[in-house]
Amino acid sequence: MTLGLRADGVSHRYGAVTALEGVSLDIPAGETTVIVGPSGCGKSTLLGILGGLLRPSAGEVTVEGSAPEACLNRLTYVFQDFALLPWRTVAGNVALVLEPHGLSRAAREARIAEVLAMTGLSEFADAWPRQLSGGMRQRVGIARALAVRPAVLLMDEPLSALDAQTRELLLDEVWATVVWVTHNLAEAVRLGERIVVMSRRPGRIRAVLRRGEAAASEAGLWAMIRDEAADAARELAHG
Amino acid sequence: MRRGNWRMAEPVPFRARGFVARERGWAAAVTLLAVLAVWQIGAELRWFSVAFLSTPAAIARALWHLVISGELGRDLGASLGRLLGGWLGGTLAGLVAGLAIGLFSTLRNPGMAVVSALFPIPKIALVPLFIIWFGIGEGSKLVTVGFGVFFPMAISTIAAVDAVPRNLIRMGQSFGLSQAAVVWRIVLPGALPALLSAMRITAATAIILLVAAEMIGAENGIGAFVLRAGNLYDIDALMAGIAVLSLIGLAAARLIGLAERALLKWR
């Protein structure tokens, strides 16, 4: 029992620049969907729209299904730049997202301890963000997202600083619908059940591949992205 | 890799020197003491006339007489009351107005128009007007200080709210924090360093305006005392009054420094 998302004809413009155009996409409940594509193709914009943090210029996003009872925040976003509060400790940053939910102090502390253990940060509960490395800050961002038991986890390049083992351990623990944006094609092939390949700007869906399909390989994805880059270069050369 | 001639090797020089703020409290004390010593020695050697510039020792003696006669207590008490009342009132009002203008877009343009139009007016020029409006008593002094402090505090608060990274606010919203929780847990703590810096500036502004107000229309207070001493050509007492003002400024800066140390441990 969890949530799925549906984007229907979603477009987004930043002033004169069209970042996304007519994107329609189903994110099935309980699956891990990875979004890949050339730089600047609108992957993060699409993720922001799916998470309700950006208002699309056209189209709409709907959410289907029901969230599990333990879920405190249905659509939970893991920010690319971590978005940690520098004036709160590691535990304080995780506590922030539990504070509005009326959990008892003991329940809150237990949940903080649980997610810090999952992300290997137990020893750093009292550290300030400035005392952590980039990878550790990223893990705090992930711990904070896991603390609210999300129904849908939207992650913008969240795992780049984690080692491969921690990454897979973490994904084993997450039972939510996961959507994540990455540049890492090997990671996309290994961990994504569905891989969404986007075209260059304005971003459109070029292909949606299922794990095991012939094109859903690192070489296949690379070929598609390379074709997009070549098309862009050709368009540029011919005005 | 080609094997090099290690006898020709030289150490990599360390280049990341400086640009690190380090606290050296003793250096501040030594500097002040050195300035006082040079001043005193200059007077002893007759580099300048003590008829126009008292020596630190003479100022200290005058200060001591003012303390034991109770005159300093009366004037200092009156000044501190006005300073605290005016500064607290103006700072709080500026903080509330700045937050409202910074947080609510409907208030931003009207609020900024009013603040920008009134901020450049020299507040000392308004003292006679405040005396007419609020009388020669405490009211006009409190309003002068409060009004003068209000504008820099409001402008600094607006800037501090604007400077809170928007991604932190979006993060709070994405986790379902209410508007009030976003303000209380993200905007205010994020703005706090800039607000404390603004308080340092408004404390100094408050002292300037207090002295001006007391010189124009007061019978007591350090400003009135300094003016009286000047009229009597009592340079020692006059400079003792100025020294007291300097000490008030130092104490205010120290208190705000302690608040910064306690509240901004995370920096």
Characterize the structure shown.
The complex is a heterodimer of chains A (239) and B (267). Chain A has two domains: 3-68 and 151-237, Rossmann fold, CATH 3.40.50.300; 85-149, no CATH class. Helix content of chain A is 34%, strand content 26%. Chain A is built from seven helices and nine strands, in the order βββαββαααβαβαββα. In chain A, a hairpin with a 6-residue loop joins strand 8 (194-198) and strand 9 (205-210). Chain A starts with a strand and ends with a helix. Helix content of chain B is 76%, strand content 0%. In chain B, helix 2 (56-69) crosses helix 10 and helix 3 runs antiparallel to helix 8 (179-217). By secondary structure, chain B is mostly helical. Chain B is built from ten helices and no strands. Chain A binds chain B through residues 51-53, 72-73, 75-77, 79, 81, 83, 85-88, 96-97, 99-100, 128, 130, 144, 148, and chain B through 165, 167-168, 170-178, 181, 185-186, 189-190, 192, 264, 266-267.
> Regarding quaternary structure, how should these chains be classified?
heterodimer
What is the fourth-level CATH superfamily of the largest domain in chain A?
A: P-loop containing nucleotide triphosphate hydrolases
Weakly predicted, low-confidence segments of chain A: none
Sheet-strand content of chain B, in percent, reads: under 5%
Number of strands of chain B: 0
Question: Largest sheet of chain A at a glance?
Answer: 6 strands, mixed
Provide the structure class of chain B: mainly alpha
- Listing every helix as H and every strand as E from the N terminus to the C terminus, the arrangement of chain B reads HHHHHHHHHH
Number of strands of chain A: 9
What percent of the residues of chain A sit in helical stretches (DSSP H or I)? 25-40%
CATH architecture annotation of the largest domain in chain A: 3-Layer(aba) Sandwich
CATH topology of the largest domain in chain A: Rossmann fold
What is the overall silhouette of chain B? flat
